[in-house]
From TrEMBL, chain A:
It comes from Rhodamnia argentea. One of its GO terms (biological process) is lipid transport. This is Synaptotagmin-1-like. Residues 67-249 form the SMP-LTD domain. Pfam families: C2, SMP_LBD. GO terms for cellular component: endoplasmic reticulum; membrane. Its cofactor is Ca(2+). Belongs to the synaptotagmin family. The gene is LOC115735878. The chain crosses the membrane at residues 7-31. Residues 240-362, 402-519 form the C2 domain.
Automatic annotation (TrEMBL), chain B:
Residues 247-365 form the C2 domain. Residues 475-503 have a biased composition (Polar residues). Its main location: membrane. This is Calcium-dependent lipid-binding protein-like. Signal peptide: none annotated. Keywords: Calcium, Coiled coil, Lipid transport, Lipid-binding, Membrane, Metal-binding, Repeat, Transmembrane, Transmembrane helix, Transport. Residues 391-418 form a coiled coil.
Length: 538, 503
């Protein structure tokens, strides 16, 4: 009997629990409103000490750390923009989700899945401080402390077998400190080519997930489990040193790298005008690309010839075939005095067919202005042959990403040896007594190299690269780098002076392959120079 | 018995479980919401809040200026500057050269950059203030300072002398840039950006001009001409209420709301002037008056020879875009061989005018509109004008806009034909054909540079000589005095450079 009643008791308990759960569900959960209310926020000054105590761990990082900057203006901006951003994001999300849902539905015999509600709420993310790191590399690093404790309401209704179930995400909270790196920096807007995002710590994520009105996340233990799962998942993807890479610019375009080679063959000129008093002119041709800083190239001088034949070849590296043009100037050579212009013409490169030689006969003009009447006079003709060879994709110099990595030494370097590359970036606070036109002199194994001088500048920027090919690693050697200034006029009054020097031991370069550092200059008040050294082995 | 008690116990346990769960739910939900509130609160702290939180341990390094500092932005900017400078060079050349062409004074046949590099010193952002003054718009004021070492060489070609390179040195720009972001419902959520230089505090743009391999005195007045053109470009295109509207890609949006539109028509009758200064060695001055609201649309009276009390009685129609901040400028010149001399300038803030009524005012002539530059207190006489302000309705506005476009178009054509030296003094086209030598409008207008940055932050700047910004800075004071409804503008004392109407 006792046995029987115990069995019955257990059965009753089982039924009772299910009954109780249902009753409880209807009692406590079902009739609760599932819409998200805007929280009423009282100003901080009115809060009591207890609330303040609770606030303490959340105090923004800029209050605590002086190296973080306050960015309340950004928060303000975001706050005003948030309603619009909310609508825009939700609209986009719906549009993206629709086709995916439509594709997946038939597989699972579900009637429909749709967003019943989709809003990110009224509370915008806030930036609780911004920190930037300054390195010697060409990159920008910033670390905002991002906190989003929002009140979103995302309700997805799933209909299947005439039943409807809702899944609701509420109170999403994400706290993260991403590191955003902008690199490489390039000289065309927006001035960086890629954005790298990575998380410095595991992010804090919290949310409520309501299934048919009941919050699964409040089942003890489950929340922690899910949270850890998400954290690990995110961490495995984006936790430093893993990064998310967002390309912004096409590097080839941004870096203005060479895209082709132009072969120019100057053939001959006809009917040039006589410029010299005695005898005929002594013509030669100068060739130059527009917007190219390289010095122009010259043919030989054909003495006393008004119909000279040169047949000389030249090569130009082309960076922008769309906008660049080849300028041809014919000059009259003189033993004494200024060489006289005999005429010129310009060939825009976009007119050239790629890969095929084209012979062109050009009328020489005085100026490039087509309406200028001085051009009506005949000045003779110039015949040139042009071939434009664009690089093929695979011939393109390898990507820029590796430029920070150490490149291979060029072919022909002796085994065991390599090439030492010295890149003189910039200097700061160099000052001469009488003049400050700094240039850098590099002394290494008796070899001397110089950069161009920068006129009247205390913070010069050279960005010049020098190469030394060596038979063996320069383990025990030093390199002498000196900043000098020469007077811009002939330096009789103030001869050239030294603005400071530094001796760099090369052992570190050999072991590190690459070193990019700022050195304090000796014999200078405050001067620093940034030098990059690379040891390239084959 | 067992069944009943089992059932009962089960129900109790079930309900309790559910209750526990819902309690847990509520607990966690309130916890999350309170955290959200905390974060929200801490997102915008002010001094009092922080004082309350920190008590006596208030961190000393924290301050709350009206313009929030952005040190991190400056660090980034100085690092990025060499790249920005290079990228901006091309953009500036493209956008400023046509502007120079538009504002080119007569006597200068061509004005181009022969060298342009922005130097190694990065601009500084002293502070940023974000407000929302209008629904759907965010206003961002950037306190922008640049004491740079750019190397800008202008190739100036005059009719008389061959090309002279003129170098702009020691450029300094101190200004507050206002950027207004028009919000939209679609990504990227900003449909247009409006950029302008705030007129209060006045933008300060200093530089020195130096002729390369020569002296500026080679052409008399060239320095003044350049200064004045820079000034006209900056006031007429960049300075509030003038603005640059940049629609951002992707969203088709009506930006006409943001654009500066003709607001009303100002009918000005320049009646006469009294007691003008005599500038001539022999005889008396030959005065004429130049009247404008925008320097782009200047009108001129006829010249009355040998008279210090000339009566012109000529009527012109001018367009006003922003009654609140614009002013009517009257400049009186003495026509002379070579360069015309300025006899005096007067300014009438439009805000002092009542719409649809004819007002006659006497304005005292001042040597310059910039109070700081006025050295002498000599009497320069007065000028009498009759003004009538008519506010446009919608149709008239459209018509006026159309007309303005046509005038500009016509001028462009004339200019292409080489008839007019510049668009600036062309409204009375026929008159300006007369001797478009070096000094036709004389120092009234000149040539120069305005510079519109672009790219991410729409960094705007410009160049002009110190204090050359005359007039047009209606201060809060003078506008408020209008709102008090005074119909006697003589009682008002505009704070800055306004001429005092005599009653």
């Amino acid at each position: 009997m006792g046995f029987f009643s115990t069995i019955l008791g257990f059965c009753g308990f089982g039924v009772g629990v299910s009954l109780g759960l249902v009753v409880g569900y209807y009692l406590f959960i079902y009739f609760q409103p599932d819409d998200v209310k805007d929280p009423v926020i009282r100003p901080l000054v009115e809060q009591d000490t207890e609330t303040l105590q609770r606030l303490l761990p959340e105090i923004p990082i800029w209050v605590k750390n002086p190296d973080y900057d306050r960015v309340d203006w950004l928060n303000m901006f975001l706050r005003h923009m948030w309603p619009y951003l909310d609508k825009a994001i939700c609209k986009t999300a719906k549009n993206i989700a629709k086709p995916i849902i439509a594709e997946q539905i038939p597989k699972y015999k579900i009637d429909s899945v749709e967003f019943e509600k989709l809003t990110l709420g009224t509370l915008p993310p806030t930036f609780q401080g911004m920190k930037v790191y300054v390195t010697d590399e060409k990159e920008l690093i910033m670390e905002p402390s991002l906190k989003w404790a929002g009140n979103p309401n995302i309700t997805v209704a799933v209909k299947a077998f005439a039943l409807k179930a809702t899944v609701q995400v509420v109170d999403l909270q994400v706290f993260a400190s991403p590191r955003i790196t902008l690199k490489p920096l390039v000289p065309s807007f927006p001035c960086f080519a890629k954005i790298f995002v990575s998380l410095m710590e595991k992010p804090h994520i919290d949310f409520g997930l309501k299934l048919v009105g009941a919050d699964l996340m409040s089942i003890p233990g489950l929340y922690r489990f899910v949270q850890e799962l998400i954290k690990d998942q995110v961490a495995s993807m984006y936790l430093w040193p893993k990064t998310l890479e967002i390309p912004i610019l096409d590097l080839t375009k941004a870096m203005r790298r060479p895209v082709g080679i132009l072969h120019v063959k100057v053939l001959r000129a006809m009917k040039l005008k006589k410029k010299d008093l005695l005898g005929a002119s002594d013509p030669y041709v100068k060739l130059k690309l527009t917007e190219d800083k390289l010095p122009s190239k010259k043919t030989t001088v054909k003495h006393r010839n008004l119909n000279p034949e040169w047949n000389e070849e030249f090569n130009f590296v082309i960076k922008e075939p769309e906008s660049q043009a080849l300028e041809l100037h014919v000059y009259d050579w003189e033993q004494v005095g200024k060489h006289e212009k005999m005429g010129m013409n310009v060939i825009p490169l976009k007119e050239l067919p790629p890969e095929e030689p084209k012979e062109m006969t050009l009328n020489l003009l005085k100026t490039m202005d087509p309406n200028n009447p001085v051009n009506d006079k005949l000045r003779g003709q110039l015949v040139v042959e042009l071939t434009y060879k664009p690089f093929k994709e695979e011939e393109m110099p390898v990507g820029f990403e590796e430029s920070n990595a150490v490149q291979k030494a060029p072919e022909g370097t002796p085994a065991g040896g390599g090439m030492l590359a010295v890149i003189v970036h910039e200097a700061q606070d160099v000052e001469g007594k009488h003049h400050t036109n700094p240039y850098v002199r590099i002394l290494f194994r008796g070899e001397e190299r110089k950069t161009k001088p920068v006129k009247k500048n205390r913070d010069p920027r050279w960005e010049e690269e020098f190469h030394f090919t060596l038979d063996e690693p320069p383990t025990n050697e030093r390199m002498h780098i000196e900043v000098l200034s020469a007077s811009s006029r002939i330096g009789l009054l103030h001869p050239k002076e030294s603005l400071g020097y530094v001796d760099i031991s090369l052992a570190d370069v050999v072991s590190n392959k690459r070193i990019n550092e700022k050195y304090h200059l000796i014999d200078s008040k405050n001067g620093r120079i940034q030098i990059e050294l690379q040891w390239r082995t084959s | 018995m067992g069944l009943t008690s089992g059932l009962f116990m089960g129900t109790v346990v079930g309900v309790a479980l559910m209750f526990g769960w819902s309690y847990m739910m509520r607990y966690r939900s309130t916890k999350r919401i309170s955290k959200a509130m905390d974060i929200k609160l801490l997102g915008s702290l002010d001094r009092n809040d922080l004082k309350k939180i920190c008590g006596d341990n208030f961190p000393e390094w924290i301050s709350f200026p009206a313009f929030e500092q952005a040190k991190w932005l400056n660090k980034q900017l100085s690092k990025l500057w060499p790249f920005v400078a290079e990228a901006a060079t091309a953009v500036i050349k493209e956008s400023v050269e046509p502007l120079l062409e538009d504002y080119r004074p007569p006597g200068i046949t061509s004005l181009k950059f022969s060298k342009l590099s922005l130097g190694t010193v990065a601009p500084k952002i002293e502070g940023i203030r974000v407000q929302s003054l209008k629904e759907g718009q965010i206003t961002m004021d950037i306190d922008f300072r640049w004491g740079g070492d750019p190397s800008i060489i202008l190739a100036v070609q005059t009719a008389l002398v061959a090309s002279i390179p003129i170098q702009l040195k020691d450029l300094q720009v101190f200004t507050v840039v206002r950027a207004i972001f028009q919000l939209a419902d679609e990504i990227p959520c900003i449909s247009a950006v409006v950029a302008a230089l705030l007129s209060e505090p006045e933008p300060r743009i200093d530089y020195t001009l130096k002729a390369v391999g020569g002296s500026l005195t080679a052409i008399p007045g060239i320095s003044d001409m350049i200064d004045d053109t820079v000034n006209s470009i900056v006031t007429d295109t960049l300075r509030w209420p003038h603005r640059i509207v940049v629609p951002l890609g992707g969203i088709p949006v009506d930006t006409s709301e943001l654009e500066l539109k003709p607001q009303g028509k100002l009918t000005v009758t320049v009646v006469r002037a009294n007691d003008l200064k005599n500038m001539e060695m022999i005889g008396k001055s030959d005065p004429y008056a130049v009247v404008y609201v925008r320097p782009l649309f200047k009108v001129k009276t006829k010249v009355i020879e040998d008279n210090l009390n000339p009566v012109w009685d000529q009527t012109f129609a001018l367009i006003a875009e922003d009654k609140e901040t614009q002013s009517l400028i009257i400049e009186v010149f003495d026509e002379d061989i070579g360069q015309d001399k300025r006899l005096g300038t007067a300014k009438l803030p439009l805000i002092t005018l009542e719409a649809e009524t004819v007002t006659e005012v006497d304005l005292r002539l001042l040597p310059s509109l910039d109070m700081l530059k006025i050295k002498d207190k000599k009497d320069r006489g007065t000028v009498t004008v009759k003004v009538f302000y008519h506010e446009f309705n919608k149709e008239e506005q459209v018509a006026a806009l159309e007309e303005e476009k046509q005038i500009l178009e016509a001028r462009k054509k004339l200019k292409e034909a080489g008839v007019i030296g510049s668009t600036m003094d062309a409204l009375d086209g026929a008159a300006s054909l007369v001797g478009s030598g070096v000094g036709m409008v004389g120092t009234g207008i000149g040539a120069g540079v305005g510079l519109v940055g672009s790219g991410l932050g729409a960094v705007g700047s410009g160049l002009s000589k110190a204090g050359r910004f005359m007039g047009r800075s209606i201060t809060g004071h003078s506008s408020s005095s209008k709102r008090n409804g005074s119909t006697t503008p003589g009682n008002d004392t505009p704070e800055n450079g306004g001429s005092q109407p005599l009653q």
